[in-house]
Specification:
The protein has 215 residues and is of the alpha/beta class. The protein contains 6 helices and 11 strands. Helix 1 packs across helix 4. The longest helix has 12 residues.
C-alpha cells in the first residue's frame, strides 16, 4: 500500500498533487492530510457515501458528528445556514487557527455527518496543505483524525499508512506534525457561546475577543 503515500511540501504544497487529492475526494474516496496538530482523514463533506466510508474506516459511533475544515471564511456558508455577528468576530480573531465553531448546519449536509443533530463544527486550518486542499475541492472537507476509533491520533503519514492504508486512496505526506492540543470547540448557536471542548485556543482569549464571558 506504499503507493498511496504522496510526498508534499508542507509550506508550499504542489498544486498538481493537491489537484489529484481533490479529484479522489470528488470520486467519494478518502484522503489523509496533515493539519496543524495531527494527520486528518478527509472526504467531500457533502457526499453521503464518502461520509459513510469514513465512519466505516474508523469504526466511529454514529452518534459522533464529524468536524470540518473550510478553505476560507466565505466557504463556511456552504456548510452552515448562517453566520452570526458573534461567529464572525471569532473567525476574524482566531482563523486560520485551531478554533472549531459549532454552527447551525446547512440543510443539504448528510445527516450522518451531523451525528443525529442539526449543527456542524467547522474551522479554517492554518496548515497550508489542509487549507489549500479544501479551497481546491471548492467546499468543506471532513477533518477527523486519521486513526481507528479509540487509537491515538497520528503524527506522521507512516502511522496513517500502518493504521488505515487499506481504506485511503492517498496520504499526503508532509512530514511529522507537531501534535499538541486539539482545537477548542465552541458552540455559537447559543448566546453567550458555550465551551464544548477546551483546546489550543484559551477561554481567556475567546472572552477577550468577545468582550464578555462564555456561557
Amino acid at each position: 500500500m506504499t503507493g498511496v503515500l504522496q510526498r508534499i511540501d508542507a509550506r508550499l504544497p504542489d498544486p498538481a498533487i493537491l489537484a489529484r487529492a481533490a479529484e479522489r475526494m470528488r470520486r467519494g474516496l478518502l484522503v489523509a492530510y496533515p493539519t496543524e496538530t495531527f494527520y486528518g482523514l478527509g472526504c467531500d463533506a457533502r457526499m453521503a457515501a464518502a461520509v459513510d466510508r469514513i465512519f466505516l474506516a474508523k469504526g466511529r459511533p454514529d452518534r459522533m458528528a464529524l468536524p470540518l475544515i473550510a478553505g476560507e471564511t466565505d466557504a463556511v456558508l456552504l456548510c452552515a445556514r448562517h453566520i452570526s455577528g458573534t461567529a464572525r468576530r471569532l473567525m476574524a480573531a482566531f482563523w486560520p487557527g485551531p478554533l472549531t465553531l459549532v454552527l447551525e448546519a446547512a440543510d443539504d449536509l448528510p445527516p450522518r455527518l451531523l451525528g443525529g443533530g442539526a449543527t456542524v463544527g467547522v474551522r479554517v486550518s492554518p496548515h497550508p496543505v489542509a487549507a489549500a486542499l479544501a479551497r481546491l475541492l471548492g467546499g468543506p472537507i471532513v477533518a477527523t483524525s486519521a486513526n481507528r476509533f479509540g487509537a491515538p491520533p497520528p503524527l506522521s503519514a507512516t502511522e496513517v499508512l500502518d493504521a488505515m492504508g487499506d481504506d485511503v486512496a492517498m496520504i499526503l505526506d508532509a512530514g511529522a506534525t507537531t501534535g499538541g492540543n486539539a482545537s477548542t470547540v465552541l458552540d455559537v448557536t447559543v448566546d453567550p457561546p458555550r465551551l464544548i471542548r477546551a483546546g489550543a485556543v484559551g477561554v481567556g482569549a475567546i472572552e477577550q475577543a468577545l468582550g464578555h464571558r462564555l456561557g
